[in-house]
Amino acid sequence: MKVADTLRPLPIGTRLTAEATEDAFLSDIAVWCERTGNHLVSLERDENGVIHVVIDKTAHMPAPGAPAAACPSSPAGRAVSAETPAAAPQQIGFNPDGGDVRHDKTFVVFSGDLDKTIAVFIMANGAAAMGRKVTIFFTFWGLNILRKPKRVRVRKTLIERMFGMMMPRGTRKLGLSRMNMGGIGAKMIRWIMKSKNVESLESLMRQATDHGVRLVACQMSMDIMGIHQEELIDGVELGGVSTFLGSGETSDMSLFV
What we know:
By secondary structure, the protein is α/β, with parallel strands linked by helices. The protein has eight helices and eight strands.
């Protein structure tokens, strides 16, 4: 994401050098260059384990959250000759010159587990760094991720109040899907993430919204579970199944978590 943010405003032809110490960066930056159409000049690791990369900016990079065109290396991104037949009627996600021009990503978050939520936002931020339009659709237990940490005074029925008391309020109260141990496991994971210089879930969520990732709360699930819009963090949209399906139809990847 830091490479993408640095290159995005710079003109075509800019050369960027970067260093990293995470082993996965060797694979990730090569794939990132391939999928965004930028040229990987060199990639090597020195004797101290530091990874050095040199990248030439050779492709326009859309603003975060903008609908993404096909990457230049894909068939949909290649030039079309003058002999190309007349274009077919326009429709969402259809390229009249051939091929799917959309590389949007959609996630459905059904779970309210800390570890699964972290995974979703890491993948969402990775997609945003590639310039993809990302939608995260929260439903049922996943709605607790979007709740404000402090109680909001809203009028509720007895059942709605009982639901609210039994469910975690916000990201700091989320438990692990395995080895939660009454919340101790979640605290351990957060401590380990910090010691390994991994962004916290709250930081990952801020990065996601700053880069145009769309957060959508399922209105029907909110009604069932007694969650009101006033209880959700800022920047969350309300939507239903058609909102999810519309996003899914322009995505080349949809994940249910």
